[in-house]
């Protein structure tokens, strides 16, 4: 065979190999880019699914213990709804637009008992990573069972021993002063009148179950179009608490009606959590 032809064939094959190598390189680069993009999207989805407690309590504490004006500004500009709820609905000292409200707010918390609550809450809840993790897991469960569920904004605050969890406007407010432990000194004082059973619920471990149950109750309230018997009210709460137990992965609520709901769900596996909560009939549980 002519040497020119042989060389031509060799050159053509070499060019083909080079092109194939280039094509493979391009495909490899595209594959890597695709993996990176998928990884980024996956990471964003993970981040979107995380639920973390906003530390409004820290800004509140800073203002109420040092009178720091910048902290007050942050309360009013970054957390206006939380501040309104605290002033008007929790401690109830007036309207947030009252010209004297900042002075009233500061004076209200100068009470020695409330100052003690602030200090204790900030010490016990310096780190809330465990609560954030459990909160995230609980809402992942709820989002899976109730796809249209809106994930609320969750924040911590310090009230005045009146409320434990506040729900409204797509937010959940945790009053840390109600979760300082069953044996916390103030809770034991007779003037506060907390029973042993009440104090058992004032532990850190009850924060997430309370958040979930109160939030679900706001979404699935008791019917108002007809009067309910006490048993029907107990069934309604039993369904809410059964879901809260499953969302937290802990048997926190153990009433007779929670057990009735558990028995019903075990024998009706085709019923979804969403169907259970939307069910307005109580006869199946009585």
Largest sheet descriptor: 3 strands, mixed
What's the overall average pLDDT, rounded?
87
Portion in helices: 55-70%
Secondary-structure element string: HHHHHHHEEEHHHHHH
The dominant shape is globular
Enumerate how many helices there are, as a single number: 13
Into which percentage range does the β-strand content fall? Answer: under 5%
| Global Rg | 29 Å
Biggest sheet: strand arrangement: 1-3-2
Tell me the number of strands.
Answer: 3
Instruction: Please mark out the parts with pLDDT under 50 across 5 or more consecutive residues, or reply none.
Output: 30-47
Oligomer: single chain
Distance between the termini: 98 Å
Task: Assign the structural class, choosing from mainly alpha, mainly beta, alpha/beta, alpha+beta, or little secondary structure.
Answer: mainly alpha
Notable characteristics:
61% helix; mainly alpha; three-stranded mixed sheet; 13 helices
Which helices and strands, and how do they pair?
Blueprint: H1 3-49, H2 56-66, H3 69-77, H4 80-90, H5 101-108, H6 112-124, H7 129-145, E1 153-157, E2 165-168, E3 171-175, H8 185-188, H9 196-200, H10 207-219, H11 230-248, H12 256-266, H13 273-278
Parallel strand pairs: 1-3
Antiparallel strand pairs: 2-3
